[in-house]
Amino acid sequence: MSFKLPELGYAYDALEPNIDARTMEIHHTKHHNGYTNNLNNAIAGTDLENKSIEDILENLDMKNGAVRNNGGGFYNHSLFWSVMNPEDKGRLSGELKDAIDAAFGSFDEFKTVFAKAAGTRFGSGWAWLCVHKGGKVEVCSTPNQDNPLMPNSDFGGTPILGLDVWEHAYYLNYQNRRPDYVQAFFNVINWNEVERRFAAAK
Ligand code: MN
After folding, report:
1. 136 C-alpha vs ligand 1 centroid, how far in Å?
2. From the CA of 145, how far away is ligand 1's center (Å)?
3. Which residues, 6+ apart, have CB-to-CB distance to 186 below 8 Å?
4. Mean pLDDT over all residues of the chain?
5. Could you give all domains of the chain from N- to C-terminal order, each with its CATH number?
6. 98 C-alpha to center of ligand 1: Å?
7. Count of C-beta atoms within a 10 Å radius of residue 38
């Protein structure tokens, strides 16, 4: 079995003006495609070949750089595309809204905490909203293509929302203005998908 680059489910220009088409196309067809191919090459002929990506990451040998970087890259981007959608965004509601209010006090405060995690990640990495067993949610940030599923994570939980803050995710349109990109991301979050992931993992 090998991993396949997932479809976005929407056009490259569908997230404009928040995220531009050229960035989306390069990000998907070059970056994510590269992680996917390199992951497949790294696991070919090993006992990881027939495992799910979640299983691979949760039981990762952190010294295996090829699987750590490319397996993380494959999983992280697959989640990232799915939690954005220009048309069917839904609204934050129900149990996830309650969990966010319980953890942060309000949705606006959640946005502040998430934007800070994204903005203060030095160099390349990701900001996450994760859910723990029992339904408690938490914001964290990881470097490079690491994520909270991996054994070294200080945070744990299951990621339900993720934002790529590598420069390749925003530099064409936003140059050094990462905070503007982070704010634009809030306009395109697919809350229906985030809620689905929350319900499945809590
Ligand atoms: Mn990326």
Report:
1. 27
2. 8
3. 111
4. 95
5. 20-202 (3.55.40.20)
6. 30
7. 17
State in Å: Cα 134 to ligand 1 middle.
30
Using DSSP, state whether 160 is helix, strand or coil. Answer: strand
Cα 144 to ligand 1 centre (Å): 9
Cα(111)–Cα(114) distance, integer angstroms: 5
What six digits make up the tokens of 95? 């149990």
Q: Which two tokens stand for residue 25?
A: 């196309």
For residue range 9-49, list pLDDT tens digits in order. 999 999 999 999 999 999 999 999 999 999 999 999 999 99
Per-residue pLDDT tens for 47-105? 999 999 999 999 999 999 999 999 999 999 999 999 999 776 678 889 999 999 999 99
Ligand 1 center to residue 11 CA distance, Å? Answer: 17
Distance 77 CA to ligand 1 centre (A): 6
